[in-house]
Amino acid sequence: MSTATVEDLTEITAPKSFWNRQRRLGAALVIIGLIAAVVFGSLAESKTARFTLSEDAEGAALSINGQFGAILFGIVTIAAGGALLAGVAKRWQTWLLGLGIVTFVLSFLCWQVAGKFLPLVDTASGSLELALPLILGALAGVLCERSGVVNVAIEGQFLMGAFGAALVGTLATSVWAGLVSAVVGGVIIAAMLAWLAIRFLVDQVVVGIVLNLFALGVTGFLYERLMQPDALKYNSPPRLPEWRIPGLADIPVVGPVLFDTNLLVWLALILVFVIHFALRRTRWGLRTRAVGEHPTAADTVGIRVRGLRYMNVLLGGVVAGIGGAYFTLVSTSAFNKNMTAGAGFIALAALIFGRWTPFGALGAALFFGFAQKLANYLSAVGSPVPNQFLNMLPYIATIIAVAGLVGRVRAPAADGVPYVKS
Amino acid sequence: MTTETAPPAKKEEEEKRESFFSLFLQNLWSANTVTVTILSIFLALVIGAVLIVVSDSQVLSYFSYFTSRPSDALNASWDLISQAYGDLFKGAIFDPAAVQAWFDGTGTWQAAFGPISETLTYAAPLVFTGLSVAIAFRGGLFNIGGQGQAVIGCITGGVVGFAVGLPVGLHLLVALIAGFLGGALWGFLPGLLKARTGAHEVITTIMLNYIATLFLSWLILQNGVRDPERTDAISKTIESSAQLPALPSPLRVHLGIVLAVVATAVVAWLLNKSPFGFELRAVGVNPPAAKTAGMSVAKTYTLLMVIAGGLAGLGGAVQVLGTADKLTAQVAGNIGFDGLLVALLGRNKPWGTLLAAILYGALRAGGNLMQVDAGVSLELVTVLQALIVIFIAAPALVKAIFQLRAARSARLGATMAKGW
Question: What start and end residues bound the annotated signal peptide (chain B) (predicted)?
């Protein structure tokens, strides 16, 4: 009790800082809003920016004068920041922050698209496709880390999944066999992670990093020994078919994006809902969270801490392996050395940026996918903004998130701490 | 886990001084550092051999009638493995044929020393990146950002190398310092964030790695950096005044390895003898206790990351000023991540890191010959490197496989385990 009084005293004597979190956010929004209105506005051409509702330049479009749009949306960003600075009620904070960021992006788009067009359907479906492995990888991370095992090996699970899908898919000439072996590939790395981290108590970040290198080496080695000399026999997997749901696919914009696509997209989106629900409402979810936050307490009430962790890490391997299948069965049709190129680490970033929750991970993955798609689009239309800088966005966003500049992210309390029964 | 590692280590050192030799004999088959390291390398080589065999369709075909005539399969496997590992040795240490030729007068001394030269060439940057990870580890920080820091070191060292005109000697010095400062800046950011906001350095350094790589791929396309006579993404060549002096061609070993040994000595002094080293070890073992003793944990973290980043940056500069002499998107290779493995293998001790870096350099140099001569992909070396560290990091696993006696010291507990 004595400590409580000390804390109370300090709280009374400490003067309340004017620059609380809300005001700092507001100031930041005002600054980027000014940049948007002044810099983007002055650089933008005074031509029509067309956002077409199709996959190309044809058809109906939302049009706005580029310069006008850049300045208008910039001013909205400033206004949102100003409201935060003025000190509105706390419940508006998230909404205003979201509004400010969205309008800033819109201002940027108006500047870039002025005199050109941006096909919305193509952008949306491209973003979703690029986000697909990130969603699955981040979900794998959610499964592992909510039960207290840090999973830095998502990249390695992707690579093994992609490799397994390509090899077995080709040998069996069946895309489904490929998908199953992608799962096996992901589970192999997950099993090594679980075994070394839970049984031998090795530092989980160390294991993760080393397993990534191991997967890179093994897949690269077998690629050069088997696939490169005889690509037709070992490395020409079939593609995952695209299915179109009649009726639903005719809805403008949303239809072609969500209902004329491959199985993995649906699987990923369904998994987000399932894992969200399971974590919150099922016995397994409650136990997982207990083990991830306070394993000793969980053990006391009779939960098998290590067993549950093994199971969750392996489940994560299943999900990440499916994510790996994306690389060889959906995006391209052959395995290549180090073809994931850091996607596993962006998935890790999405997991952290999404605050270790399924829906947060989905949102972060979509945002990162959008940034990548935009980078591709801008380099295709010859924008002055280098696409490398847009590709940095996920990483910068994650640093800002963990540094607590925009909201505080907190990992599960026992994340990365091995449990030793005493 | 962590708490029991520190105090017995000192005690054990004292015992060692008493009768090193008898202790050595006693510990030969117990789970001590040396035995576990050697057995880990052995295990990795065994698994590597299995990989070589299963990926060779010719040899696999012999296994189809293994039960009727096993000698075919075994002989073929043995030939393949011994050729591959023989090449690994010849490419890394010495080729008996070349040495024999040198003694007979038919070959040159360069050919005899070629493998060693290659090994040391590959080892030099790894020493720096390894030291970077090791020193951060001792202070309780896990610097995964060696790669990014090395990339920035490549950039700053390289840009000074071709953009600034300075006299011989001074130019090299300035370029190396620029490499150090570039890496130090890239280490300062996560250090500051850790100290001020508590952002976990593993996350921030992973992210900074990618930012550095993307920045490099952008930079080499810019006017003034890009070589105007080339169409591909490659920078101008570094002036000879800024390049690290090397032995006469075809030997490639350069001053970098000497600098690496000097750096190891400096880091060893810094860690074990300097007041800052004492502080950082104290912070590494127990931050709250260090704070109670009057040390500034935040300041130590920041300074530590600056030094660690600077070391990795030097590694990048040595890479670009020693062997690469141009900036490309891949100029830093994988030296940052390899540095991580090197530090783990060297058990986060400066001289151990130096030895581990030389071992990794040897694997890399030998891997080149293995790829050319035996047709076994260089990727096998990556697998071997990763496996060695997996076994090193899980001494309990090695102990169980070989039924080793328990070690006298608790130093071989699993490498520090902590969360985000």
Answer: none
